[in-house]
Structures are given as structure tokens and as C-alpha cells.
């Protein structure tokens, strides 16, 4: 089984029950999530060896994070302990015209304040086939930029494939800094994943004539974007997720995989959302699995999109669908008939 | 009031809250359900005399089942007590492309291991006008086949009308055994209810050109199917439910009533599902009530379909709508305007 | 900031969790609501000075009502204490073809049995710029008619603008009494809000060719209705909400503002409902705010409709959206994209 | 099996979860209860034929009350339908020095406003062996006094044994009225149940030297009280419950049965309370069962006290313990060892 | 009414439901609390004018804090907005030998990082009669020491009475720093509240022969401690709470008020705990109220102890008992009898 | 770290919330538990290598069991998959005089119907230092007796220490069979754990003059019992737990460790119970840890009793206390003071 190392933050995710707003709530459901952790869980879920690298505080929240990751078969032996706090975020579930709303309380988290010297990447990456991180991690702090660069350089040295989800977060850094940092890190990236907004905000590459708030797709322009990324940054493979946000309740969902100089568009699903947060990460989880274990690009992107289509119907950031369930959907059965 | 005896299993139904998967849950909502019990509750709900016949264990779960049935006005005096366990099943609510999932834990249940000699049908059926069972019960065990046959023969002797919902369950038996058993029992059945899949898997009669996973209807073929059933098995009336499963969240729902050699198609409803499990049983409940208390076939099938349309919006297997609410919908008001 | 006094009842609202029916429930979620109280909360939410006038019993329920109103910045200093009970109502949330259902338990409430002499309107209205009430309050009791008339006459004397939402409630009074009472009170009303049914049942003015249960709009006729109201009752401004009830799960929602002899139709939103009760009141809240703080009629009605569109996605009767969130939607972004 | 008719109110009981106060809560757990209804449920629970007589409104709350009573095997055929509302009450669970607190919202309930002519006692009491009511019912309204008197006179005529629990409620009437009314009704009572406070407030008979708030017992004085009741009012049997309220969390609990001119004191239990409300009614339920089905006075009072001791550990007003469980405790096993 | 200004932090308090540990939980109940905020709520609850001074972030958590404080009648107009985050803490409820456990996540909170220049104490303290803070606030950060000193000096200048609860928190600072800082601030304190451990750790004054973990009281030594505090630091009044921690489920609770050179010991209550956190603050709330509104020292300490005894039976940090309920307990009725 | 293999069943444990009875509930909290699994979790919790051996069905319940065990660091690689069902049991929490009640639904479970040939003990026990099982496992079925014997013989061959908790369950087998089977298996046992009832029912050895339902201890007799066990069955070490069941709410808890021919009695704790089920297993977990990692018998039994004292205050069967928390209690701090 392929051995993948994922690096980034993992946070407590606090959600008011149902559609309640934070301002109304008297309780929070708590799960744990993070862009790269979500991918690690997906990969372990498909049977791969996934190791998560992060830093969590030495208290019961830090212990609970590890308990949960272990329960999903993620290797937690490389998680550092220490620092002041676990990052937290609040998710208010939207509906119809009301968007879901995320409130970050992740500043000063253990990982964001970790010292680069704490991570011995030569040791951590021993035996690894693949390394995954996202644009969120370097956005956390300057030390996280450094740690990420250290990791990527170690990967390059060891010949480990690197994937990166651009994941631009405007509340963590601004466009200019994102561009400066990510343009540099992109030299180490073999597989780049992003959406249209990421490409524009982080890499300065945009598809013509699309308005991300309108929900309309400009399929034609995406191949150009993907091609431009490969050309400018030298990565071999680019995947672009195509979300059509009709409302907070219904989204269109598809993706493009650009590899070997060709574009492969997936089928598009119209999804009635149960939990949209983590949807993009479940695409990455499905894609990395498929890139490692399946051979045809069309099949790879179809797997990743079907897998993440199903995640949008599952509570929490972690995808928990079987390969067989993904394949049933890929093969055309989205009828939702009761399985008994 | 007509007196109807229903025979079958009743199980505990354990559901994770909301859209959680079994793998994620820390609690289960518990209700009670079973194909024939659901019909008994519907009939009592419409004011008929409904008696349920089954066997439950001599423990607090068995007592709780009876408490719940009594609360819905079902006569529980014919329920036997004993055996090892109450059958249970788990329902994971699906959404959009993710199907609802049923996990059975009903093996070795009290009713499945009951002895035919425990049921004195002459006594049980005293005063009954109608007997209802389904294809699930004989699928439970060979003794259940025998008990069902005993019941049906007693009905024949007493001139009691018999209805049977084919309800093929692939996890309980295979097609071949289902066909062998049900073909034999069909000789006693006056009113046969099923869907397209049942007709094909249980009776070997299929409508041409329909793919049950695609959600498309082949209305034309259904009359043939119904007609074939009446011809091959001698039952007077056949009802076929027509579910168009667009997704786990939205279904089309209508039905055909074939009686007196003619087909009556109901109006079709597009339903945003709250709880789909028990939907077919609520159709049977509405149909039996309508066959007994209403005269026009078109009105009968319209009542049954409107009643079961409403059940799809109600939590749990038991339908709990008033005749007046059904008639409001039959009369065209599906606007969902607040009633105050 | 403008100072608005709202007068009416406030009740406990008891809802079974999720889509459960009252007949199934073992618990109720409790919030507080009332046609005029909902408006007061909206106004305070937008930063205006809102005072609520009512009467609540001298027990912990009465105290809790005040706690909640204070938490939403509503001035409760004019709320009287005494009487026998707090009015309550039960809301069963509908879905698809099953309508939401309201059961009133508001008879004999403190406000409905209050004596006109308890309200010193000269004192209460000191410093007020605007007075708001609805057609529900006079429907509660004859003393409430008298109290309302006292208030309206005091407003006239002090030159305070008066708005009234017709809000016909067939369970509180019949058409004939409603007409008789409201026709008289309308002489004091400057801004009249209603829907098509209200206009017909309360004022006897109807748009041609519309069937409220069918969900179809007859846009053309509404201007006539609004014009007729201004002509017959002398109010300056009329707003008519236009609900297209496709089902209990999806509604079309828009409105007409008729002012200065001209009609301004808002954009229409198709809404997947989270909580429909209080939707109309949130329109009034948005409208009064906009009439006071914004200048263009088109902008005013657009604000009111966008604000109330968002309320339909929020649990409870009280709207809790920021002006900025309303403006985002007015400006065309109903995409529901996650805000982070 | 003996046939017992119980008459009184039944209300919705709304409790904040856990130890929350009404002022803090956002939900209520709902059960149903009433002094006489609790007794009817106890009697049915022990296998007797219990019929409940009351009046409930014609809405879903009224239907739900009946559903619940039926589930506990109480005959609901004599329950009238109509009136404005179902009485409700709120229970805030106390702990340690903080008392439990009951807020009544029972004024104007259907039963309190029922007309004596609605109750045909000759018909209702047909086949009855025993009639039970309490001092709460005549406290509801003057019509309830009249209805109670009608019932008692009919019992006298038919030779039906009558039991009455004095149950003084200071929020429903004052001492003087209670004395006037109850002194008159006592002439029809064969079995009188009360506590020390009831005897004093309702019948004007007091034990010397006891302070009900201090929790101290004056065992010696109780026999006198019981004897005085029999002498003054002519009833044959008197039971007095002896609660020592150490705190809202721990109570001492015992009782005295005075019959045939002799006193029988039960064993005393120190109870860690789960739900104290309904405790007295469960004593009455146990006592009536024991008076009907067991022969020795000592055994009767021991049964009643053990049964109600167990009720104090059960959520809700309704006692739900088996005769065997009561006997285990009577026989000295209060060890609480796990039963498996 | 006296006008009291309280200054300190307010945090979100996240508790697993029931007795669950953080390591086991899937949800948190959320309330808000802080040593000084708890006092402000108590004071407002008794009818005084209470203003809270703190800083909260400009997000929905900051808004929610203010909503809640307003609902309890606390003036929030002096609360600053800004900074990175709201402090949070987790409370795991203990039982029997297992202690309750608090996990702090309050580092980097808005108030701890506020700048002294943000607080204009001359303005904030306008009209104030009393100022209250605790030893927790200066423990948060060096800027908080400075802000506290600024406030105390402004009080001295304006002649405002100052109370301070020593409240030593070993996780926020060490003994040496606490002593250095608090010894200096004590010069401004008129009323000093603490327990035995505080006196020793913060002021270096200890009662002889007491082991805080053993639960035994050394009543004799407390007067010496109180006297020493008044002598060394010049404050007029000292209150010492005396907790006997028999277990996490049962505590003894009493206090000593030392004023005018004399000691007044309260009655002692043995309490079965519902929620122990905030118990000490409720004592301070009761004490300040009593010092302001009641005259006799014995009555003052009795009020404070009875009030806080009741708080130990209430969920959350905020005390919510009426003066009448406190007086009932002071007058000797701790029987917990149902109030109805 | 020592490597321990535990063998037995693991079941779903379904509990009504709070103190509700099964007959009242509408939901169940679900955890997982089993006599030997509880020990495995304890051992892993203290940092030892614990492997669990059992068989679970190939469905989501089987997967969930493994997820949970992994989250607690138990090695699940030796768990077999297959069979019909996962055993379940229901726990109704008792209080005061009402005992907790366990309803088994474990018949026909995967492990009870497993075939001895499925377990390759030579392989499973590779590297193991210790093997633990209980008297529950052979009580499940004759095949389980055989599997247990196979395991014990393999241990003997490999020189692996064997511990066995007698754990007599009267609902699984009768005394005679228990004696016959366990007397034989005892020859392989090095460390025998039991309580007084086990010793009598399973081994026929009884302490004089003790009544298990009365809660009284006969300390003197226990040494004789322990000695008799070592003499008759040749085991080196015997531990006897001494539960004094004052009520379902409060228990006394202590134990005796008999080793090297001497008795070591632990301190006794009086515990206010949160969750008593699994209490004995947490003693075994603590004991095995202490036998492996600590040297003094007195310290060993003190550790085991303190650890299990704390478990009685924790929800669920799994103990989750740190070594440090246990030592704090062993060292005499049971004060339950808040840790912050």
C-alpha cells in the first residue's frame, strides 16, 4: 500500500445543531477537521497508509484529536505535542440564500507557532511515497512557511511526489503574500489542485468571463488555466474543482483533471447538501487515491468527483464512503434507492 | 367497522440522528416497525379495527413494542410472548446521491423461530373481515412459511379476504426460493400489492424497458404486469406502486390500481423526503382502508397514493395523517401553506 | 435613531424537534414569538430603538420572555405584568406536501384579558416616531380592540406614523368581524401591509383570478389591490407580500410596495425553507427599517424582501441578519458560498 | 379483575432538561400527568381495569394525552372531548437546598370549565368496583365541585367504594374554601389518603409538634390524626404519607395505614430522588391495588410505600414498576445491585 | 440603586453533557462566564445597576456574549470590541472522588492583549458607587495588571469603594508573581474576599493546621487570617469562604465576614452539587449586594452564603435566585419541598 | 511494554438517556463494552500493548466496534470478521432502591457461534506476555468453552501468564455448568479475580456469614476464600472485590489481594455512582497493570481499587483515567476539588 504523509493543521470544529446560528445556540457539536487531515482520513479510509504530521497541545483536546484520527486509521506517531492551544473554528450551516459561515479561532495554535527545528523531515518522510499539503498551512504563519518549505525540499531530495491544494483563505493572508509564497513553493509541487478562485488569487491565473458568485461555469476556460499552471510552475498534473453554487442548499459539482497535456472533465452532479465543508478535501482524497491506485485519467477524475459528491451528503469534514459506494455512483446509480 | 388481522414481524428500528452514518453515531433514535405492523397502524389510524399477530420476547423490549402498538389503537391481544429476541434493524438516512441504508439484525427473532403450532388461526381470525401479510414474513424462515400458509388456508376456509404485499427482500432469501414459495401462496391472495421489482423477482413478471435505478417510468407496461398477475395467480385486484427515485432526497410517487380488468393510475407527486422507509406500507394501509370504505377505484388509488405521499414527510414508519388531511391533498392542495 | 413602539402579544412557541409531529414528540424546543414582537426584534436588530408593549404573567415564563427580548435589544420597560397566563402555540414543521401546522393555546392570555385602563398611551408613546401593530391583536378580544383603538388615536394626536400588518387569522375571528373592526381602525393607518388573502378577507378587496392554494401569482392584479386600499382607507403606503407556496419545503417570495401612486415589485426568491413561521413579520421589520432609513422605494422593497428571504432560512420567528448580509443578497449574491 | 374509575384532570407536564431552571431553558421534555391519572396508570400497571374520566380539547394535544394513556392500558373511552385547552404545568427539578418548583398553567382547562351535565355518571360507573378522585379536582372550579359531588352520590347509590386523596393545593384554592367543600364531600369517602399538611389545611385536624419544613416526624401524633378523620368523617380507612424532606435530593418516605381501628406503620426508606413529583400518587396507586388484591393491612401499607419508594427513582409522574420489583424491595432488598 | 462596575474577562464555557469527559464527548453545552462577570450578573439579578467592563472580539461569539449579558440586565455599553479571540474554557464535571477539571484556552484573549490606553476609567467609572475585580485579571497579562492598577487608582481618586476577590489561579501565574502584584494592588482594596488557599498563596498569610485537600475546617484560625489581612493591607472588610470538599459531589459551604474588628460566621450548608463552578463568585455577588443593601454583618454573610449555597444547585456560572428564595433558606427552610 | 492479549465478546451497549427506563425511552446512547474488552482498554490506557481477540460481524456495527477500540489504542488486528450479529445489551440506570437492570440480546452473536478452528492461538499469542479472559466467555456457548480451553492450553505451552475474572452470569448458564467448566479451566489460571458471589457460585467456596444483598462486609472470611482458591486450583494470586451495595446510588468499594500467602486489603471508598457497569473490569485493568508494572502487593491492590473507584464516576464501561489521577486518589486526595 502506498504510504502518504499529510502535513497541516487539525482543528476542533464547533457547529450549532441543525441550522441554528452561533448567535442562537446553546450547544456545539464537535468534530475535528483540517484541509490536510481530511485528506489523510480519506486516504486511510480507502486503505492506504496515511500519516498525519501536525502539532497539538498537551491537553485533553490534543488527546481527543489523536483518538479520533486513530479511530480512522490515520497514523498519529508523527504528531508533535506542545504549544498553547488547539485551533478551533465554528461552522454555521447555511441554507438556500443564506451562506454557511465559518468563524476562525485558529490564531496562536500549536502548529502555527511551532518551530521549524521541531520537524525532522528526513525522519518523518522515511518510507513515504507521497506528500500532501495545502495553501492553508503556509498561510498560518511565517514559521509554517518555513516548515512547509523544509518538507517540500526534503521530498524533492527523496524523490517523493508532492501534491498541494491551493486553498486560498482570505482571512489568513492577502493575495499578494499568498502569491509571493505559493509561487515559490509551487516549484516543488507535482500535483496541483485548486478551484478557479485559487488559481486567480494565488497564482494570478484566471479563466475569462466567470463570476464565482453567480454559479455559472465557463468550462472552456478551465483547460487554459490548468495548462497555464503546468507551464508556469512545472507541475505535471492539475485538478480543478468546478463548484456551481446555486444556493447554500444545492450545488453543482464536477472537476477537470489535466494530465499528460490533456483535459478530462468529470460528470457533473447536482447535490442537495448535507454538509458542504470538507467537500473539496474529499475530492483531493479521492483523487490522490485514484492517482495512486487507478490508471485511467477519466476514471481517476470520475472517482474523485463521485467520492466527493457523496461526502457532501455526510456530516462532518471526514469522508466515510467505501470504494464500492463510490463506484456504484460512478457507474450511474445516483438514484438513492434504499439499500437493504 | 371492518376488522382486519395483520400478521408479520415487528422490529426495533434504530436510527442515528439526522443524516449521521452508523459509523459516526453515539446514539440511536428508536421506533418500532415492520411491513405488516405499519399497515395495521395505518388501518387503526383511519378508524378500522386492526389486530396485529406476531411473537415478541418476554422482556422490556417486547413490552415496549406492545405499549407503542396500543398507543396507536392496534389490538395486541393476539401477540404471543416468548422466544429469544426482538428483531432489530438500523436505518441510516441517505441524502441526494447517497442512498439510505438498512442493516438487518433480525435473524433469530422470536417470530422467525416461532412454531406453527403456537398459532391457532381459527381462534385468531374469529370475526375478521380481512387478512393482510407480506412477502417478508415467509422470507424469515421455513416455519414462517408454514405459519403463513396455515393462516391463508384458514382465511380461505372462512371466506376472509386476503391481501399480500410482495415486498421482495434480497437479504432474506434469493429469487428462486421467493418464486417457489410465493407462487404457491399467491393462490390464496385476493389483493396483490407490489412494485415492478417485486413482480419480476418474486413472480417472474416484468414490464419491458424499465431500469429501476434510473428513475424512469414505463407507465404503459404496468397494466400488462398487473393483468398478468391476475391471470396467472387468480387474484382480483392488483396494485403497483411506481417510485421514481430521482435521488435519496426527492422521489416521484404514484401507483396503479388494476381491478375489474381496468387500470386506474393515480396522480403523481414529487416528494421531498423526510423519511422514506415505510412509504410503501403506508400505501397499502391507505389502499386497504379505501378498498373497504370507499367505492370508486380511481378514488381508492388516489387516496392510497396521497396518504402515502404524506407519510414520506413523517418521521418513522408509522403513518399518522387524518383522512381529512389526505383528502385535502387528493383535492389538489399540496401547497404546504401553514395551517393555523 | 428612530424610536418605534410595537404593540401586541408575545407567546411561547413550542416546536417538536425536526419534522416530528406533536402526536409523536417527547420534547418541545421553546422560543418566543408574536407578530409584532417579531417586528420589534427585527428593528432592534437593524439598530433602531424598539420598544415592545404587551402584558405577561408574573411568573418565570413572563420573566423569560423579557430576558429574551432584552437579549435582542428590545426595550421591555413598557411591558405590563399580571394576568393569568402567557399565550402559547405549537408549531409542527411541515415538509413537501405536508403543511406546517399551528395549534393555538393563546386564549385567556394576559394581554387578551388586559384592561384598556392599564395602558397609558400618552406616556408609552412619549418620544416615539412610529407605532406598529397588526390585525392579530384586535382579533384577540374586545378589550384588545379597544386598547388598539386607544393607541391609534393617541398616535394620531401625537402625529406618530402608524403601520399595520393586516394578518388575518381565521382561528381568532371570522371575516365579518375582522372587516367591521379593521375597516374602522384603518383610518389611523399610514402604512398598510398584507397579503392577497388579508386584503380579501379583512378589507374585502381582491385581486382577480388567483388561487392561494395553487401558488400561482397574478402580478398584474396586485397594483389594483394596493391602489384600492389607499383609496378606500386613505393610507399612503401599501405593501403586499407575494408568497408562491409550491410546497411546504419550497416557496417563491417577493413583494410589491405601492407608494406615491406607483408600484415597485421586488425581485423574487425561490427559497428552500428552514423555518417559514415569522417570515411575513421579517418582511415588515425590513420594510419599516427601510422606510425609515433608506430613500428609494425600489431599494426599500428590495431590502425588505431580501431580509425576509434570509429569515426563512433561520430557526425561530426572530430575524437575525445583518444589514450587510441583506445587502449582499440584494446585490445579487444568493449563491450561498461558504463565508470564511 | 377489579374495575376502578378515576376522575380528575390530566395535564401536559413540561420540564427543562436536567436541573435547568425555566429561566434558562431552550427546551422542555413533555410528559402527561395528573393526580388521579397517575393513580389510574398505576392501577393498570398492576393489572387492574382502570378507566380515566376527564375532558380534553379536540386538538393534537388532546389526542396525544389519549395515546399515552392507552399505551399504559388505561381505558380512555369515557374521556370527553371539547373545551378550550389542555391544562399544562412546568416542573423545575430542584436539588439539595433548592426546592423543585411547579408553575401552573391549568386555568381555563377543558375539565375545569366542563359542565356537570356532560357527565352521565350512571353510565360511566357501570360495572365499576371502586371510584377514586382527589381534592385537586374540586379545587379547579365550582363546576368541578358539582361534578365531583354528582359522581360521589352516584357511587353511594351504586355501592361503589370511594377513595379520595386530600391533596391540598394552595395555589388553587384557600384553606377556608377547601375545608368547606371537602368536609361536605368527605361523607361519601370510604378511604381517605392525605399527609399531615392536608389533614390540617383541608380537614382542620393536626398532629401536634411537627414542622413540615424541618423534615422531622412525629410518628406518635399520626394515629390520632387518622383516628380523628375516621371519627369525624366516617370513612373506614385512612392512609397518611410521612415525607421527611431532608433536602430536594434526599427524602425519608413512609406511611401509616389506619384501618379497623388500628395503625400500621410501614418501613421507612431514605430515597435519593430522581423525580419526586407524582410520588404521593404512586403511593395511592399501590395502596388501592393492595387494598383490592392483598389481605393484610401491614402488607398493604408496605406494598404501597415500597411501590412509591421506587417511583421516586423513575422519571415522570407515572409509576412503572412490576409487582415483583415492589415485592423484592418489601422483602428487604434495597441494595440496588445490578440485575442481569 | 447602587451602581457597580465590574472588570475582568468573560469566556465561553464549554461543557460535555452530563458527567462525560472531554475525551468522550461529541458535543459541548456552551454558556459564558468569568469571575467578575458572574458577580455582575448576580448584582443585576438582585436589582442593582451592574456594568461590565471587558473586551471581546468583533465576531459572533463577541456578539453572543453581549446578548447573554444583556438578557441578565448587565449594562454592556462599556465593553470594548476588538482583538483576536474570546477566551474559552472547558469544564468536565466531576463526581464523587473524581474532581471537576477545567482546561483553559484563554491565552491571547482580547482582554488579555488589550492596551491600557483603550480604557478611559474616568469616563467608565462615572456615576459608579462600587468597583469589583479579582486576582484573575492581573494574572492574565502584564497589560492587565496595568489596566487594573489604572482602574483602582481612578477609584481611589473618585472615592469609589473597591472589592477584590483574590482568586489565585496557579495555571495563570506563580505564587511569587501573584504576591508581588497583588500586595501592591491591595492598597486600593476596601473589601477583600478570598479563601484559605488564596490568603496563603497570594498574600502569604495562612491559618495554622489545615489541609485543603482533606476537607477539614479550622474555624479558629480564620479570624486571625482575616485580621492579618486588614492589618497588613488596610482593607476594612474581609470575607473568607470555607469550603469543605468531602467529594466532588458533596461540599460543606460556609463563610466568615470580618468587619469592624469582629468575625461573623455563617451557618454551614452541606450541598449536593449540581454545578460547583462559579460558586465562589455567587458568594461575592450575594455579599456585595448585602453590604450595599442590608445592614447587619451577620445578616450580610448569611445572605451571601445562602445565595451561593443555592447557586451550587444551578447549572452554569450565573446565579439566578430571587432575594426571596435566599431569605427562605436563610430563615431555615432548606427542606427542598416542592413549591407549587 | 508488556504485551497482553484479551479474549472475549464485545457488545453494543444501549442505554436510555439519564434515568429513563427502557419502557419509557425514545433513544439509546450507544457505546461498546465487554468484560475482557473493558480490561483491554484499561491496559492500553495505562500504556501497555493490548490486543483484543473476538469475532464481529461484517457490517457497519462490526466496523464501528473496531473504530472505537482503535481510538483507545487497542490492537484490533486479531479480531475475526463474520457471523450473523453483534451481541447487544441494554442498561437501564438505577437509582437509590431501584437497581440498574441489564437486558441481554447477545445470543447468536458472532463470537458465541465462532468455530474453534478459526482461532490460531499459536499465531495470536506470538509475543504475548499475559493472557486475560473471564468466566463470561465460556458461558456463551460450548464452542466458546472449547476456544477458551485452546487458548489457555496454548498459554501454558508458551509460558504466558493467565488471568481470569470468574464473573458468574446467571442468565448465561447455571451454577452446575459453571462449576463443571470453570473448575477445569482454573488449572491454567495464574491470577484469579472474583467477588464473593463468584467464588461461591463458580468455585463452590464461600465466606461465612455474609448476605450479598445486605451490603455488609465480612472482611475476616475473605482471606479464607482466597486461600482456598489458591489451594484448590493452584493459582498464585487471587483478588477479591468487595462491593457494599448500600443502594443503586452509593456503593462501598474495596478489594483484597492475596499473594505469596498473604492478604492485602485496600482502602475502602464510598462512591456516589455515575455508571457502575464495568466497575469490576476496571479493577482488573488496574490490577493487571499494577501486577506488571508495580512491585508491592499493597500498592498493587491500592492502585486497582483507586482506579476502579474513579471508573464508577465515568460514563460507559471503559475506564479513562490517567496513572497520575489514580495516584492522586491513592495518596489520599479524594476531595474532588476542581482541578484548574
TrEMBL record, chains A, B, C, D, E, F:
Keywords assigned: Kinase, Transferase
The record ties this protein, via Gene3D superfamilies, to: 3.40.1190.20
> Residue ranges of the Carbohydrate kinase PfkB domain?
1-312
A GO MF term = kinase activity
What CDD domains does this protein map onto?
KdgK
The record, for PANTHER family, names: 2-DEHYDRO-3-DEOXYGLUCONOKINASE_2-DEHYDRO-3-DEOXYGALACTONOKINASE, SUGAR KINASE
Protein family (similarity comment): Belongs to the carbohydrate kinase PfkB family.
Q: What is this protein called?
A: Sugar kinase
